[in-house]
Amino acid sequence: MSDQRGAKQYPITIDGESCTVTVIKTGKTTWTARGNFRGKPGSGTGATESSALAGWRKWAEFSANE
Question: Which residue among 16, 24, 29, 30 is least packed, with the fewest CB closer than 10 Å?
Fold first, then answer.
């Protein structure tokens, strides 16, 4: 678990691999999602938890096709 208050963890599967992504509120209207995919750290930001997760998922899907 993350040591940051209010952090939530979400299980996500990308390209058949399970990942755990942590989402944290980093500002008044900003959320950041962080997690590793295939050993690489990545992040996504957005105005909501779901948009931050979507940004991380987009990064991971791009990484899966490199």
Answer: 16
Who contacts 51 (Cβ-Cβ below 8 Å, separation ≥6)?
Answer: 31
Residue showing tokens 């996500």 = 12
Predicted local distance difference test score (pLDDT) of residue 13: 94
Q: For the chain, give every domain's residue range.
A: 8-64
Q: What is the pTM (predicted TM-score) of this model? A: 0.86
Alpha-carbon gap, residue 42 to 5, rounded angstroms: 20
Cα separation, 66 vs 33, in Å, equals: 21
For 9, the token pair is 């963890």
